[in-house]
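Local shape tokens

___
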Amino acid sequence: MLYRRFGKRQFDFICALLALIILLPIILVFAVLIRVKLGSPVIFRQKRPGRHGKLFTLFKLRSMTDARDSSGHLLRDSQRLGKFGRFLRASSVDELPELFNVLRGDMSLVGPRPLLVRYLPYFTSDERARFIVRPGITGLAQVSGRNDLSWNARLQSDIQYVNDVTFMGDIRILCATVLCVFRRDGYQTDPNASMLDFDAERELRLGVRDE
């Protein structure tokens, strides 16, 4: 409980700062490559719900082109992800700018991944427990199967984490994350090819929203 209330934020800040000092040259190199290969903007920004559902701006390295169909609509992710973009995602290099979110206090190193704003009405009362803590760059769900997990399994992993936040638990998840990245466990170029978006799945399976 002491770590959860006081130590976790300090641990996040110190580790994120050290990581940025070490990784900043890598981020800058990839930023230049993205500018050359994909154009601008280099940084992808998107509003996501954070702790207590408060919205914040998530930072990631851009990994997709702006390719559109004849009607002007963006093509699906897998069609806008070239070889370079797939590498950024599979290696999780695109996630590195989220270290700035950790420094700002928007995110934690470990916690439930921040999902899309449009998903907010579809969480059950129990699942909203994931918003008690700051969202994480990685989390229990990510080291338990990543995109291979069903939505229900992911959210249950989030709740399990929230109910048992410990220093050693965070260390284990961070170490497991490194292994998952190197082995590319659970990585999918286009997760939508194997599963529905969360809101679409809930509308299909539940038929009604949980108020």
